[in-house]
Amino acid sequence: MGATMHALAIAIPTGGVAILAYLVVGLVIGVESMGVPLPGETTLIAAALLASQGEVNIYFVIGSAATGAIIGDSVGYFIGRKAGRSLFERLGRRFHHFSEARIVKAEKYFHKYGVWTVFFGRFVALLRIFAGPMAGMLRMPYPKFLAANAAGGIAWSTTIGVVAYKIGDNADKIFGEVSVWALVAIAVVAVTAYVVYKIRRRRTEVPTGPLLVEPVPVPSQIKSEDSSADA
Length: 231
Description:
Oligomer: single chain
Shape: flat
Mean pLDDT: 75
Distance between the termini: 130 Å
């Protein structure tokens, strides 16, 4: 076992600890893809941030995530194909993620968009859990499922991994800019709130009832009053 880990440490950068990180990434994402609610995306982001600090290799992080996603979804597919809808009914009694309303909503996506649900579902938290088992339950042809599953898994792991890696690599610069814009946003919100407050206060100070103002007589009324007084 020790010789094997040593050989892997040489072949896979950046050492034995990195190997464990890659295995954890692949395992968590794989189990999540089978239908178990686990923080797969969070695990990928954390590993990519570690890669930005040189602790692990970003290419192996992305590869581990994609492999876990593809294998996990495939296992979930065959589980769903064999167990059918009863699987989701049992899971619904244990996990709120598998509530009847969510199952029905996911089914509508599958019926409407087909394999595209598998591809884009990788980027959506709940569909990432549902995709494999539900595709199997609905008897989607496995070759079509595998193609969409592989494409989605690779696209998702690459996108999330690279973005998190770039954020970690430029954390000081990014957070510095974010801090400046946060101050600007706070100032704008504060000024807007003050202006709205002043406008509302002025409106409340203006009388809303009828004004008791003595009517001004028109010239014709003045003449009639003068003639009656002379009489």
